[in-house]
């Protein structure tokens, strides 16, 4: 939302939430009736166009997230978090709005008349009107939106997203979308009045707008350079998504008490030099400062960064200037690189206004831009001030980015450049094009695919999990996996998509990228569902795909690969049906592997053990015997906690594993009274019904049990809360909550952080120091989930 929301900020159907599509139900019914009764197909075409626009945008979302996960030609090396995903979940509101407008136009303007299917003169006229009046009016309207009054009330909502995604292009307040619609509908209205409009011209023009909007807000460069080499004037007619600034700068906005620009430059340069900055540009009431600090001007002490002898958490008054800036702590930093860029430590734009240049005067007004998603937005007083010309300053741009860039994306960082819609020619005409666009565009195309340090290999679970992937629905993936009724309506499309994924995909692929400290973390997807792992026919192909993924990671220099969900499956009840024995098959087949294979069983077992409240004397065990189950039972029995087993078969297998040690604490029973149940995949509904009221179900398996009882507590599968320093976390892992990772995934991260050289895989491999992984995870900031209160 904008920093100071104005009138008509919210959409009319905002109170409906996820049921907002109900406003279109009357239109769907009327269009079907009109076609059945009067063979009026144009109303159906309006609804079909709406569906096409949704699918078109979703394809861009998936494609963009896939490319940014790989890292190829990525532009902004900054993370996307849940707050941006939540803010942009309304991207389809503009489609609903445009559908309503188009439908009303059909009913009240066109009526029973039928539009021609194709007219070339109308299509040419639409193109000319867009390049002329529409782009021209949009350019000046966009510049007006950057006036302080409109920016703070409307347009700042759009610029809250520094790292853009395709759907960022259409995330605006309602009033702003009304204005955009009035501008962009002019070519269509004109052709309608001239009698040259056609169905094709309407569909192509709307698709063109969607295509260019999505293209321009991708966080990777897409258009190859030969396009502009073959036809150089194309750069005036088509923008590209790249954005970057070659020198990251911090702009201190200053209030003038005198009219002497030269004196201001002189005083500003001398005052700010004490902070280790070099003034590289000075203009009315603003100074641009070089972000690179000299070695002698910075220091790191106890994980806290100092600049010019001053803490970056608070730059106190120095030589008559009082500046206060909140910066991000660089935790566990031992030394600073030669060319430290201070902007890397700034979580979001900071503007400091100086109200009085008189020495020993402490009066100031500090301005912070919380709409850019800072974690400190509630800690800083927000005091907006105009810089004199009425327009928002470039100072609101502060990013640490990779080099590269060309047009529209620069607008999200420079703010006073590149105002044009799709055709940059008006920026060239009026001098607002970014000067570094061409050279930085070339550099962005050269960025290679990112090499991860650790990979988490997972797979699809249910059919609906397709939409909960990060490559699926941005909104659904930001919430735990759950059944949703409206997904049943999409089941035919889901089945078709699942067929494409599982039968036409023969290798794993990256779908998520995270950062934690110095590690680059990737999540790769094996295009198989859980049901495939239960089929003997799929066993060979799945093992081959996992082996291929391991060898490719080995070739790319990946240090650790952790096997998630059923990629490490081993059925101890029927050993002949095991998949790969917790990864042991690959280690034996390739004994010289440098990459370390991790099944995560040690940490998963410790997470479950430490979830059991202190003072519990007995627990009930029920579930498939796995490596994690054996480790849990052994630890509990050794610590004097009685493990009561319901089934004789499971009791025999556990007793054989214990080998006579602590057997007095392993009890075969028919008693269902223990309040703590350790459950696995084979827990039945009938067994759940036998539990006492208030029983706590603690799963030790990869998959959670069915939550059958309303009077009992169901804990999540073994998982841990990730540290705040983990970046680019914008989706949930299956059924886990936000910023929660499964123990198997965390185990791979910890393995890479600690630099352990041994594999952690295999069923019969003894767990050496099983507490090591747990202690290391806690040391690195991972936290256990809280068990519901007993």
How would you briefly describe this protein structure?
With 790 residues, the protein is an alpha/beta fold.
Architecture overview:
It is a multi-pass membrane protein. Keywords: Membrane, Transmembrane, Transmembrane helix. Pfam families: CER1-like_C (PF12076), FA_hydroxylase (PF04116). The protein has about 800 residues and is an alpha/beta fold. It folds into 4 domains: about 15-235, no CATH class; about 250-400, no CATH class; about 455-600 and about 740-765, no CATH class; about 600-720, NAD(P)-binding Rossmann-like Domain (Rossmann fold). Helices cover about 35% and strands about 10% of the residues. It has 27 helices and 22 strands. The strands form 6 sheets. A 6-stranded parallel β-sheet has the order 16-15-14-17-18-19, covered by helices on one side. A 5-stranded mixed β-sheet has the order 10-11-9-12-13, with helices on both faces. Helix 5 packs antiparallel against helix 8 (about 185-195), helix 22 (about 600-610) crosses helix 23 (about 625-640) and helix 22 (about 600-610) packs across helix 26 (about 745-755). The chain is elongated, with a radius of gyration of 30 Å. Mean pLDDT is about 75; it is low at about 245-415 and about 570-575.
């Amino acid at each position: 939302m904008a920093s100071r929301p104005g009138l008509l900020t919210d959409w009319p159907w905002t109170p409906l939430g996820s049921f907002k599509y109900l406003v279109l139900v009357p239109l769907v019914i009327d269009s079907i009736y009109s076609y059945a009764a009067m063979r009026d197909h144009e109303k159906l075409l309006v609804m079909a166009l709406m569906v096409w626009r949704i699918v078109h945008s979703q394809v861009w979302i998936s494609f963009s997230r896939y490319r940014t996960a790989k890292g190829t030609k990525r532009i902004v090396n900054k993370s996307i978090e849940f707050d941006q995903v939540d803010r942009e979940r309304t991207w389809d509101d503009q489609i609903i709005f445009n559908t309503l407008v188009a439908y009303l136009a059909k009913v009240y303007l066109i009526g029973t008349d039928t539009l021609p299917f194709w007219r070339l003169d109308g299509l040419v006229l639409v193109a000319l009107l867009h390049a002329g009046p529409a782009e021209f009016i949009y350019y000046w309207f966009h510049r007006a939106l950057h006036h302080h009054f409109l920016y703070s009330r409307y347009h700042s909502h759009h610029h809250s997203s520094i790292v853009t995604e395709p759907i960022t292009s259409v995330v605006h307040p309602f009033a702003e979308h009304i204005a955009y619609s009035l501008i962009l509908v002019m070519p269509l209205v004109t052709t309608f009045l001239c009698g040259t409009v056609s169905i094709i011209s309407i569909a192509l023009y709307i698709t063109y707008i969607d295509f260019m909007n999505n293209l321009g807000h991708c966080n990777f460069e897409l258009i190859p350079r030969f396009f502009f080499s073959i036809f150089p004037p194309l750069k005036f007619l088509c923008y590209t998504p790249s954005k970057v600034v070659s020198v990251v700068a911090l702009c201190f906005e200053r209030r003038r008490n005198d009219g002497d620009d030269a004196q201001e430059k002189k005083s500003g340069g001398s005052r700010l030099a004490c902070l280790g900055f070099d003034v590289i540009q000075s203009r009315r009431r603003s100074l641009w400062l070089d972000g690179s600090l000299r070695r002698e001007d910075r220091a790191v002490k106890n994980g806290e960064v100092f600049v010019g002898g001053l803490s970056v958490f608070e730059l106190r008054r120095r030589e008559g200037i009082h500046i206060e800036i909140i910066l991000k702590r660089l935790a566990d930093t031992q030394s600073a690189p030669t060319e430290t860029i201070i902007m890397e430590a700034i979580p979001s734009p900071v503007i400091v206004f100086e109200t009085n240049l008189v020495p020993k005067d402490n009066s100031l007004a500090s301005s912070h831009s919380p709409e850019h998603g800072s974690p400190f937005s509630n800690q800083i007083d927000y005091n907006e001030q105009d810089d004199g010309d009425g327009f928002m300053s470039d100072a609101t741009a502060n990013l640490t980015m990779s080099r590269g860039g060309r047009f529209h994306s620069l607008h999200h960082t420079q703010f006073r450049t590149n105002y044009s819609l799709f055709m940059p020619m008006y920026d060239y005409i009026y001098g607002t094009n970014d000067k570094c666009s061409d050279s930085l565009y070339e550099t962005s195309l050269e960025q290679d695919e990112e090499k991860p340090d650790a990979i988490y290999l997972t797979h699809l679970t249910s059919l609906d999990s397709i939409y909960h992937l990060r490559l699926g629905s941005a909104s659904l993936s930001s919430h735990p996996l759950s059944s949703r009724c409206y997904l049943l309506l999409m089941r035919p499309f889901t089945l078709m998509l699942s067929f494409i994924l599982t039968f036409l995909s023969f290798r794993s692929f990256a779908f998520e990228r995270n950062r934690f400290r110095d590690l680059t973390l990737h999540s790769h997807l094996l295009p198989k569902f859980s049901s495939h792992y239960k089929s003997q026919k799929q066993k060979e192909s799945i093992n081959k795909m996992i082996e291929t993924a391991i060898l490719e990671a080995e070739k790319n220099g990946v240090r650790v690969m952790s096997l998630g969900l059923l990629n490490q499956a081993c059925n101890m009840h029927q050993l002949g049906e095991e998949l790969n024995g917790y990864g042991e098959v690959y280690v034996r087949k390739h004994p010289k592997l440098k990459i370390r294979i991790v099944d995560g069983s040690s940490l998963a077992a410790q997470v479950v053990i430490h979830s059991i409240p202190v003072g519990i004397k007995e627990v009930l065990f029920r579930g498939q015997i796995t490596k994690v189950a054996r480790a849990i039972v052994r630890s509990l029995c050794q610590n004097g906690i009685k493990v009561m087993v319901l089934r004789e078969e499971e009791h025999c297998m556990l007793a054989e594993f214990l080998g006579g040690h602590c057997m007095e604490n392993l009890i075969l029973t028919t008693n269902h009274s223990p309040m703590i149940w350790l459950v696995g995949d084979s827990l039945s509904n009938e067994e759940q019904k036998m539990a006492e009221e208030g029983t706590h179900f603690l799963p030790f398996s990869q998959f959670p049990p069915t939550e059958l009882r309303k009077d009992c507590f169901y804990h999540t599968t073994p998982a841990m809360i990730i540290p705040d320093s983990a970046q680019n976390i914008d989706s949930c892992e299956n059924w886990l909550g936000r910023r929660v990772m499964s123990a198997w995934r965390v185990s791979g991260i910890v393995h890479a952080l600690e630099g352990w050289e041994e594999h952690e895989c295999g069923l019969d491999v003894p767990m050496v120091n099983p507490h090591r992984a747990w202690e290391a995870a806690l040391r690195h900031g991972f936290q256990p989930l809280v068990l519901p209160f007993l």
